[in-house]
């Protein structure tokens, strides 16, 4: 299975003129936040694939503004009438099954709280969000033999590719989540990888953690409906 992951910027191959050819074998698209909702519609149109996404700690109002890298247009955002105009499954705070691939995907967007902006959470608040998912995850385990396959977040786990400043500090409860629910992948953005050689992939017990800043393709033939 081939999963195209995007986050934070449209300055990547995923938004190049050759996207339809470069990523023609894509089975599913995941967005880890801080991308305009129009970009999800664009990728789905170009690749004829479904998009699952979470919110970051800020988002741009228009696709063109992001392409111009005009960061003055950042605005707080949540699902509303405007976001619903564009294609994509908003999975922030939810757990869903993608029928075409059989993948079980959950989402926990936002960042650590560093001011009074929206889509920011304290450690305690994020723990409560995880608790609200726990019933669904347990039912998945009973029915499908696993809690989930992929967790999409915006922020990283604490101590694994996160930053030192309050905004980019990761969540400790994501470590607890991986301990208990054992997703095969945790995909996040938020921490910008300006160095092309910066480390993108880490392993935490059974979970592969990927900073997908820009774009990243997961190739994994073991993922799918029969994954146990």
Mind explaining what this structure looks like?
The chain has helices at about 20, 35-45, 65, 125-145, 170-180, and strands spanning about 1-5, 30, 50-55, 60, 75, 90, 95-100, 105-110, 110, 120, 150-155, 185-190, 200-205, 205-210, 215-220. With about 230 residues, it is α/β, with parallel strands linked by helices. The protein has a single domain (about 1-220), classed as Purple Acid Phosphatase, chain A, domain 2. The chain has a six-stranded mixed sheet. A five-stranded mixed sheet has the order 6-3-2-1-15, with helices on one face. The protein has a two-stranded antiparallel ribbon with strand order 4-5. The longest helix is centred in the middle third of the chain and has 22 residues, at about 125-145. The relative contact order is 0.18.
Query: How many beta-strand elements?
Result: 15
Instruction: Describe the largest sheet.
Output: 6 strands, mixed
| Radius of gyration, in angstroms, nearest whole number | 16 Å
Unreliable stretches (pLDDT < 50, length at least 5) are: 60-77
Q: What does the average pLDDT come to?
A: 87
Number of helices: 5
The chain-level structural class is alpha/beta
Number of domains: 1
N-C termini distance: 15 Å
Q: CATH class, please?
A: Alpha Beta
Helix content: 10-25%
CATH topology: Purple Acid Phosphatase, chain A, domain 2
CATH superfamily: Metallo-dependent phosphatases
Classify the beta-strand content into a percent band.
15-25%
Shape: globular
Q: How are the strands of the biggest sheet laid out side by side?
A: 7-8-11-12-14-13
CATH architecture: 4-Layer Sandwich
Order of helices and strands: EHEHEEHEEEEEEHEHEEEE
């Amino acid at each position: 299975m081939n999963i195209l992951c995007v986050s934070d910027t449209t300055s990547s191959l995923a938004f190049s003129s050759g996207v339809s050819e470069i990523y023609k074998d894509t089975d599913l698209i995941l967005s880890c936040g801080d991308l305009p909702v129009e970009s999800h519609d664009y990728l789905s149109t170009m690749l004829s694939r479904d998009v699952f996404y979470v919110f970051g700690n800020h988002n741009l109002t228009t696709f063109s503004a992001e392409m111009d890298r005009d960061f003055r247009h950042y605005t707080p955002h949540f699902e509303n009438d405007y976001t619903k105009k564009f294609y994509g499954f908003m999975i922030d705070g939810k757990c869903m099954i993608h029928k075409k691939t059989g993948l079980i995907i959950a989402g926990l967007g936002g960042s650590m709280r560093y001011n009074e902006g929206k889509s920011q959470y304290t450690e305690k608040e994020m723990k409560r969000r995880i608790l609200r998912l726990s019933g669904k995850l347990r039912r998945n385990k009973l029915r499908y033999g696993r809690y989930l396959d992929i967790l999409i977040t915006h922020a990283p786990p604490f101590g694994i590719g996160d930053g030192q400043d309050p905004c980019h500090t990761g969540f400790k409860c994501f470590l607890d989540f991986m301990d208990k629910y054992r997703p095969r992948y945790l995909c996040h953005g938020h921490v910008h990888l300006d160095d092309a050689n910066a480390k993108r992939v880490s392993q935490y017990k059974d979970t592969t953690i990927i900073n997908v800043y820009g774009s990243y393709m997961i190739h994994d033939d073991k993922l799918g409906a029969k994954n146990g």
